[in-house]
Amino acid sequence: MAAITPAPAETSGPPPMGLRERKKLKTRIAIRRATHRLVAEQGYEATTVEQIAEAAEVSPSTVFRYFPTKEDIVLSGGLHPSLETELRARPPAEDPLDSLRLVITTGLAAFTPEERAEAVLRTRLMVEVPAIRARMTESIALTSDLLVRALADRTGRPHGDLDVRVFTAAVLGALREVMLYWAARDHQDDLAELVDRALRTLRDGVRLQRPL
After folding, report:
1. pLDDT by residue (tens digit) across 86-143?
2. Per-residue model confidence as pLDDT tens digits over 45-84
3. Cα separation, 102 vs 6, whole angstroms
4. Dihedral sign computed on CA atoms, order 114, 116, 122, 128
5. Is position 166 within any domain?
6. pTM
7. What's the total number of domains in the chain?
């Protein structure tokens, strides 16, 4: 998923990043943008880590220090790291699924043109490149751990609770299908509306549209 702009929090938010953290973030962004530009120009397979490093003005070893694989660079703009923070900032009595839906769709609705272009490229590559789809499964597992902790804390359950793990897996599976559906339809739909629809479907189920 593309980088998600955080929904407005009801707290003062995390402390500002220090100089070292800002430099790291700047480097990550430079590597990711260089990758997207090169892939858009010459294709994924033709783009090498050496080319990415040169375009981002870093060494190949620096690229690998930030991203273990080339696939990780493409997927790095997925669910925003602040998602966990924003989820924890939602009203305690709010239904967890509604909290997730509101945080994610609010962020997607605030996409800049550049963020949308990155999301379009990322999801197109998810469809076209098997290695990226495979790596996405591993990436989802890491995101799942973050959300499981936040949702368990919100609901007063242990972090290893099966119900929380199943719920989180269902949400992330729904988001994965939304990304693939959006790409398959040539990105014509409104992504925030698709996510809203998918998460409402998790809550309401699939209803019969016509008599059997």
Report:
1. 888 999 899 999 999 999 998 888 888 888 888 899 899 988 898 888 888 777 877 8
2. 999 999 999 999 999 999 999 999 999 998 876 566 678 8
3. 10
4. negative
5. yes
6. 0.78
7. 1
Within 8 A by CB and 6+ apart from 131, the residues are 71
The set of residues, in sequence order, having a beta carbon less than 8 Å from that of 65 and lying 6+ positions away, is none
* Chain centroid offset of residue 156 CA: 26
Determine the Cα–Cα distance for residues 194 and 164; give it in Å rounded to an integer. Answer: 23
Two structure tokens written together for 204: 């309401």
Two structure tokens written together for 133? 């789809």
Q: CATH code at 118?
A: 1.10.357.10
Q: How many residues does the chain have?
A: 212
**Rounded CA separation 106/29 (Å):** 22
Record the tokens describing residue 21, joined without a space.
């953290």
Residue 41 domain-assigned? no
Q: 174: how many CB neighbours lie within 10 A of its CB?
A: 17
For the chain, the maximum distance between any two Cα atoms, rounded to a whole number of angstroms, is: 63
Which pair of tokens denotes residue 136?
């996405």
Contact 139, 78 (CB under 8 A): yes
Q: Rounded distance, CA 97 to CA 112, Å?
A: 25
For residue 155, what are its two tokens? 């609901």
User: Which range marks the domain in which residue 172 is found?
Assistant: 69-203
